[in-house]
Specification:
The protein is α/β, with parallel strands linked by helices and 265 residues long. It has an eight-stranded mixed sheet with strand order 1-2-4-3-5-6-7-8, sandwiched between helices.
Amino acid sequence: MTLDGFSLEEFSYQDKALPVYVRGTGPAIIIMHEIPCLTPETAEFARRVAAAGFTVFLPSLFGEVGRSFTPLYALEMMAKTCIRREFAAFEANKSGAIADVLRDLCRVVHARCGGVGVGALGMCFTGNFALSLAVEPSVLAPVLCQPSLPAAFTAKMRAGLHIAPEELSVVKNRIKTEDLSVLGVRFTHDVMCPKARFDRLRDELGAGFEAIEIDSSPRNKHGIPLTAHSVVTLDLVDQEGHPTKKALDRIIAYFQEKLLVTTTA
């Protein structure tokens, strides 16, 4: 199934082909979808990003493209995806092999689209992937939306970043020497993306980490439920002044600040 308004391409790696949906013009943004699949809500978010002046690349990493979210389907895909070795879902200090594939994709789309660099945004299961992709020099705007790996079963896992220490060192050095920054977004009471994870990001990245944490505590003034998780898709309230809409607007502004840069000779 081709998403309305997107063209379908294939990115070849090893002996496999990764379906990638493409829309827009301008610098490249890779958007990695959440569990259970590349949903209509994710496609709508990608349309907004493309409309802001970017070429959006949506790799289909798991699930049925275009299928709507249901809790049962999400549980089914979570069970199937967590056991796939390339995702290494339970590793606190190691990224999965899929990160290498996506870094290759970053290099290819940067060469194709030009500009100063590439943006990368992951959500939920793929949220931490954006941090791993920041090892790649072409990635200048990594965004972690409710990063949920590793699964938060223990204190170590709750603070885990799903990235190898040597890769994290590269990201930290880039923050010091290249003015790289990392943007993170979560709801305050999201059990899949716990506070300890953002605290660790602050400790590791310092001023290079910009955190947006949306109040989802009981009786919060916006009526956001305790179960809120998907900031720019399922739990987005598309109303001016709502904190999820402000978060979406900040993500797009961040991409524009980092990537829509004109250079003078």
